[in-house]
Specification:
- The chain has 563 residues and is an alpha+beta fold.
- The protein contains 14 helices and 20 strands.
């Protein structure tokens, strides 16, 4: 019987009875395969059918019991954890089987009242229907070559469930005979049985427009339109099905717009350079420890955002998110010394999680020189508490302690003014960074987001007018509004604006007297499943927090290819 018949079971007990009676009398009859070739049931199938035949009175009795138990059930909803299926005993072997299938593939269906009555004779069909749905889902994934690491252990779990419920699956008409064959074909033809290859290619037309550069030089800046690219190949490997070894190769040829305009505020969010030389741009390993811990360790470009959630879902990605560097994430807490180190996350519940990290600068960590290494060079150490009090609201509170030596100070993450970048000049600087981020799904089509960041910078050396222990205050904030499925499913129109990092007070030195505002508007439009085009623009008023500077406009059209 098909999925439509299972729906008939739920909505019409009378029709269920008639259908089961017909099915009962037709077990030994010939059936049509998908190829439309008429065949007879194999002797093994006849044995299964005969073994599961019941008398008409027994079937009707089962229907009545099922109908009484299901009178308050209106629809079948998806569940994401076997713990939601309250009536399944943890002591039953099927419990772990359900856990594996549900959490790996999300394909077992349960009822809104979170019960799953699979151990009682009258409801084994219900269990079989869920198992059948999972089998169909896995077959679809294998056929589309999109299955993420379908393991032999999962196949063995499926086999055992099939053997236990073969009679009910036969009644439902489940087709499971070619599942292992499809998996074997996939293993023979895919790139690797443990590694998946993903790719992202960006083409970007961009240009900056204005009068004089914002660095006080008085020079005009070039306003030529450029065409640049960035290519990333990502190798995701898994050895247990729950861990992840990520290796990323990158080549790019962007020229930073900060060099053209005289301010970091004008930078694109994906402006990687390197003359298209190929390099390893990311290498880290993520693995679970028990049920609630996830650990991270990396040596190349393990970033703060890999461990701490930016809480900016529609704008955080450099390939598909904001066009400007500033808008993608809170620069005072989610940018800093990073590259090599470790971290972990702990899930207290679905609503509360805690993440910790310690990351050293990627250039310092492998060097044994004085002032370098994992603990004596630039570093970031911090914690983030994630809270989701309701389904459509996420809040994250972040604290990071950082240190940067004098020749490598950049506490604003290349997004703010010169003073916000180096408040004490080339003087070793430590910082206490605080951030609050929020993401709120107002409706199915409207999303609100934003952040506020505060940084307390501390001079660690004397340098002219700067004395050791001097402080500087840096602030930033942003608000965003996104409209989903505008013009086409998957399309997103976003507008965001805020104040890039600004030095509001510096002991013994100058501060930013005026305030810059950056406003970005963009429209992400999916041409197809693999091609996304994002035209947009952003404007910077009072660049470098100086109202004597001319307004700067940046326009860009980014095309993203993913495979």
């Amino acid at each position: 019987m098909s999925t439509s018949f299972w729906n008939t079971i739920k909505y019409s007990p009378a029709l269920l009875g008639a259908s089961l009676l017909v099915a009962n009398s037709a077990y030994g009859a010939p059936s049509l395969e998908e190829s439309s070739t008429e065949t007879q049931l194999a002797p093994q199938e006849l044995t299964v059918a005969q073994a599961t035949s019941e008398s008409n009175s027994e079937i009707l009795q089962q229907i009545n019991i099922y109908n009484n138990e299901g009178t308050n059930v209106d629809s079948i909803d998806q569940v994401t954890s076997v713990s939601q299926l309250r009536d399944v005993s943890p002591g039953d072997w099927a419990y772990e089987a359900l856990r594996s299938l549900v959490e790996r593939y999300g394909c077992i269906a349960g009822y809104p009242n979170r019960t799953f009555r699979g151990n009682r004779a009258t409801t084994r069909y219900e269990f079989a229907a869920g198992l059948n749905a999972c089998l169909n889902q896995i077959e679809r994934l294998i056929a589309a070559s999109t299955a993420d690491f379908i393991t032999r252990e999962d196949l063995e779990t499926l086999q055992r469930l099939i053997q236990e419920f073969e009679a009910e699956l036969a009644t439902l008409g489940a087709r499971v005979d070619n599942l292992e064959g499809r998996v074997a074909f996939l293993e023979d033809h895919q790139f690797s049985t443990t590694t998946k290859l993903k790719g992202e290619v960006l083409f970007t037309f961009a240009g900056a427009f204005g009068e004089e550069q914002a660095d006080g030089s008085g020079d005009d800046f070039d306003q030529n339109i450029t065409l640049s690219d960035r290519v990333r190949l990502v190798f995701d490997s898994s050895f247990t099905g729950k861990d992840l070894l990520r290796t990323r190769l990158q080549a790019a040829n962007f020229t930073s717009l900060s060099d053209v305009t005289g301010t970091d505020m004008a930078r694109l969010g994906h402006d990687e350079g390197g003359g298209n030389d190929v390099e390893i741009s990311k290498l880290y390993y993520r693995f679970p420890i028990g049920e609630k811990f996830t650990a991270y360790v990396g040596t190349v470009e393990l970033e703060i955002e890999d461990i701490f959630d930016p809480t900016n879902p529609f704008l955080e990605s450099s390939g598909t998110g904001a066009l400007s560097r500033f808008v993608s994430r809170n620069p005072l807490t989610h940018r800093g010394p990073e590259g090599a180190g470790a971290g972990f996350s702990y899930e207290f519940s679905d609503a509360v999680n805690l993440s910790l990290l310690y990351l050293a600068d990627g250039g310092d960590a492998p060097s044994p020189a004085q002032g370098d290494g994992l603990f004596n060079g630039a570093y970031s150490a911090g914690a983030q508490l994630g809270i989701s009090p309701i389904d459509n609201l996420e809040i994250s509170l972040t604290y990071v302690r950082s240190y940067q030596p004098g020749e490598d100070v950049n506490i604003s993450g290349s997004t703010g003014s010169d003073l916000a970048r180096e408040p004490f000049g080339e003087t070793a600087t430590s910082a206490n960074r605080f951030g609050a981020q929020a993401s709120f799904r107002l409706t199915e089509q409207i999303h609100l987001g934003g952040w506020f960041g505060y940084l307390d910078a501390i001079a660690e050396d004397d340098n002219g007018n700067v004395e050791e222990g001097d402080n500087a205050d840096i602030i930033t904030w942003l608000a965003s509004l996104s409209f989903l499925d505008v013009g086409k499913e998957g399309a997103v129109f976003s507008i965001a604006g805020g104040v890039p990092p600004k030095a509001t007070e510096i002991d013994g030195g100058d501060e930013d007297d005026d305030t810059s505002y950056l406003i970005e508007a963009q429209y992400k439009f999916p041409i197809s499943k693999n091609i996304l085009i994002t035209p947009g623009a952003y404007v910077i008023f009072n660049p470098n927090h100086d109202d004597d500077n001319d307004t700067i406009w940046v326009g860009a059209i980014r095309t993203t290819f993913r495979f």
